[in-house]
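Hi, here's the filled form for the chain we discussed.

Project: internal
Contact: R.S.
Residues: 135
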Amino acid sequence: MNPEPLTKAAPRRRVYISGPMTGLTRREYLRRFAVAEVVLKRLGYEPVNPARFVVCKPWLFRLIGYRLALIYDLWRLSQCDAVAYLPNWTASGGANVEHRYATSVGIPDLPEQLKVWCAVENDIQDRAIAARIDN
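And the returned structure, exactly as it came back:
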């Protein structure tokens, strides 16, 4: 069974946010994921933001390591209805694993126009979200 791509937000559709974290500062990836979260909420989705997972806390990540954190991410992804990929997600090893998993189990990605809008919103709201994170 191959689900149809989402064309508009259905009530409480969970959307997993996938994108690069490794190689970015904590502040930078928190900001990018927070912007995507805001955009998805505006569209009526229930965003699932892996940057907010407890395994992303620096002290715990150092303790459990990349592999276990990624396994936890995939478990959370398995509970979602769709995936939203952040710009440059293809440069991320973790996001590529998430993409392969989602594709293999039939979790669709968001339509292209939503991806474009997320990228535009990312540029527009970058400073506003960063200010909220800093406070």
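Let me know if anything looks off before we file it.
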